[in-house]
Amino acid sequence: MQWWEPVLWLLAFSAPWAFPHHALIINEIAIVALFAVSLDLVLGYSGIVSLGHASFLGFGAYTAALFAKWIHPDPLLGLAVGTVAACVLGALCSATILRGSDLTRLMVTLGMALILFELANKFDGLTGGSDGLQGVVMGPVLGRFEFDLVGQVAASYSMAVLLVLFFLARRLVHSPFGATLMAVRDNRLRAMAIGVPVSARLAAAYTIAAGVAGAAGALMAQTTGFASLDVFALERSADVMLILVIGGVGWLYGGVVGAVVFKLMHDVISSITPQYWTFWMGLFLVVLVMVGRERLFKPWTWMGRA
Q: Which distant-in-sequence residues (6+ apart) come within 8 Å of 54 by Cβ?
């Protein structure tokens, strides 16, 4: 652990209470950062390209929302159920990413998200269809902390989940398992030659990443009290790809930093020019690619790699 990390996380946890009027955007940043970390596990560390990662986000969101509405409103229990459900879906879908080229994986993962989108739309009696699943009321966190309208409890809850899963993910990528993942990413044939079970490693990484994305989806449903079809949309997968472009792949803090930059730029630019904020975001990404992330964000260089 670097010396600046405890300071960074303490500042993050104090932000919703220091700036209560911005607690809702802080909650969104924490959830999007967790979603970006999950994609980095498969893209940055495993070399698996995915254009349908939102399928796990949406599956976790709907599972947690349905669990809270029909079974039990406890947030932590619903979070666990949403995470496990997304893990199971990831394990089932992992066979689709073991064969073919990167283009094939892009299309197959996108197809999975589209299938789930249509299923959620079709079974409107269960999911609410195009109107979304409404009326999701959550109980207090740990039986004590009620979700407030300002969003301070929600932001702290999401931040705590992000902290725990972030350090578990970092422990994973710095383990021998993570080393074999990076070996597969760099040269699959060489990894097979030295005895690495490539298919098993990729399937495990995909399953774990799906669970982390499902946890992000569960947090989204729990803190908003709503789950809609847009959680499966292509824009969700595209946005998280852009976040990793901004923050950097193969570096877990890249997902966190990218989420902060992306969401703040989205919030600020859209408040100034609601119609053309995508133009300025696109211009920023072009400049980022042309100039280089290291030159554009020099203060990041002292942070080191996590």
A: 113, 231, 232, 233, 234, 236, 237, 240
Residues near 87 by beta carbon (within 8 Å), at least 6 away in sequence = 207, 208, 210, 211, 214
User: Can you tell me which residue has the tokens 């394990």?
Assistant: 91
Local structure of 258: helix, strand or coil: helix
Half-sphere exposure of 134 (CA within 13 A, CB side): 5
**Do the Cβ atoms of 23 and 84 come closer than 8 Å?**
no
DSSP output for 79-105? HHHHHHHHHHHHHHHGGGGSSS-HHHH
The pair of structure tokens assigned to 303 is 């942070």
Question: Each residue's pLDDT tens digit in the chain (306 positions)?
Answer: 677 788 888 988 998 888 888 889 999 999 999 999 999 999 988 888 888 889 999 999 999 999 988 888 899 999 999 999 999 999 998 888 887 777 888 888 888 888 988 888 888 878 887 777 887 888 888 878 888 878 888 999 999 999 999 999 999 999 999 899 899 888 888 888 888 888 899 999 999 999 999 999 999 999 888 888 888 888 888 889 889 888 888 888 888 988 998 888 888 888 888 777 788 888 888 887 777 666 555 554 445 555
Rounded to whole angstroms, what are the CA distances from 254 to 99, 180, 190, 198, 246? 28, 21, 28, 26, 8
Q: Which residue has the tokens 């995909």?
A: 206
